[in-house]
């Protein structure tokens, strides 16, 4: 019996169990995407109700807007800066912990707590400790002659946003990398050690190549989450100073809710979805090649 025939012959109760999932998927993903697409084809400013399509004028304005491209560039800078550091620190720390404290549940529990904190709460705490000369960090740095306006200078404001993401989500990368390391047979490492390879050589030539598909999957998960960064920017900088931290998602919020440009905001949201799908597709292709090698 062919695969299609076996699927067609599946018991009705199995299909019934899938029905609620399909309903939720359509209601929370498919319908909002269709609504957003229809809204983007309407007038730039107007009501939230979908009317007759009026063409691609929102997309033409979007593609010729320097503000949009500036926000997209800032998003790329944030993603590259945050994800590269998180992956390097996370995977490196995981390899070290797997060698020194293998299977320690206490370590995993301690690593989990920064990730489960609400991003808005984390941002507010950082805002307090970095605020002017009265913040905790700023106060003690001023005692040694370092006066840094963390959130009122473009470069340092972006650096703070990247640093917060690194602080909160590097433990998440460590946990996932530790899970991937458990799939490596212990005999493989012993064989490499018997051949005279040291710990660094084993990690670089044996361990990392074996978990490369998992590392790409971790990068993809973090990318999907990081592209949606919003609470941190809203709580810390509101896109400032100027537009130096106005990433694409915050620019979308400003257009949609700040200026009530619903059609234009929907077009920006479509751009975010297309950009995300394109990057995820590249990562999936890279992952398949890593699995086949």
Quick rundown:
With 293 residues, the protein is mainly alpha-helical. The protein has helices at residues 3-8, 12-40, 57-63, 66-100, 105-116, 119-130, 136-143, 154-181, 186-194, 199-210, 212-226, 231-236, 248-258, 262-292. The protein folds into 2 domains: 1-40, no CATH class; 65-292, MetI-like (MetI-like fold, Orthogonal Bundle).
Walkthrough of the structure:
This protein is mainly alpha-helical. The chain contains 14 helices and no strands. Helix 13 (248-258) packs antiparallel against helix 14 (262-292).
SSE layout:
Layout: H1 3-8, H2 12-40, H3 57-63, H4 66-100, H5 105-116, H6 119-130, H7 136-143, H8 154-181, H9 186-194, H10 199-210, H11 212-226, H12 231-236, H13 248-258, H14 262-292
Helix pairs in contact: 2-14, 3-14, 4-8, 4-11, 5-8, 8-11, 9-10, 11-14, 13-14
Strand content: under 5%
State the share of residues found in helices, binned by percent: over 70%
Counting structural domains, the number is: 2
* Number of E-state strands: 0
Distance between the termini: 33 Å
**CATH class categorisation of the largest domain:** Mainly Alpha
CATH superfamily of the largest domain: MetI-like
**Topology order in helix (H) and strand (E) letters:** HHHHHHHHHHHHHH
* CATH topology (level 3) name of the largest domain: MetI-like fold
Dominant shape: globular
Number of helices: 14
Main location: membrane
Keywords: Cell membrane, Membrane, Transmembrane, Transmembrane helix, Transport
Family: Belongs to the binding-protein-dependent transport system permease family.
Protein name: Carbohydrate ABC transporter permease
């Amino acid at each position: 019996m062919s695969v299609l025939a076996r699927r067609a012959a599946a018991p009705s109760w199995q299909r019934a169990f899938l029905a609620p999932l399909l309903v939720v998927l359509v209601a929370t993903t498919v319908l909002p995407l269709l609504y957003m697409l229809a809204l983007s084809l309407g007038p730039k400013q107007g009501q939230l109700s979908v009317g007759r399509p009026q063409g691609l004028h929102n997309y033409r304005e979007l593609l010729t807007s320097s503000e949009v491209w500036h926000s997209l560039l800032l998003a790329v800078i944030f993603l590259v800066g945050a994800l590269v550091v998180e992956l390097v620190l996370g995977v490196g720390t995981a390899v070290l912990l797997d060698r020194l404290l293998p299977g320690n549940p206490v370590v995993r529990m301690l690593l989990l707590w920064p990730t489960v904190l609400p991003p808005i709460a984390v941002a507010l705490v950082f805002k307090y400790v970095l605020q002017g000369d009265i913040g905790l960090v700023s106060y003690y740095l001023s005692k040694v002659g370092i006066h840094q306006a963390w959130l009122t200078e473009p470069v340092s404001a972006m650096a703070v946003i990247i640093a917060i993401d690194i602080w909160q989500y590097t433990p998440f990368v460590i946990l996932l990398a530790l899970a991937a390391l458990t799939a490596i047979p212990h005999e493989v490492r012993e064989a490499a050690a018997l051949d005279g390879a040291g710990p660094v050589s084993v990690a670089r030539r044996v361990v990392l190549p074996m978990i490369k598909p998992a590392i790409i999957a971790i990068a993809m998960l973090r990318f999907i989450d990081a592209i949606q960064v919003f609470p941190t920017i809203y709580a810390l900088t509101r896109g400032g100073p100027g537009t130096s931290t106005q990433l694409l998602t915050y620019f979308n919020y400003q257009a949609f809710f700040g200026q009530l440009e619903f059609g234009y905001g929907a077009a920006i949201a479509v751009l975010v979805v297309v950009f995300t799908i394109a990057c995820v597709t590249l990562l999936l292709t890279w992952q398949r090649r890593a699995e086949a090698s």
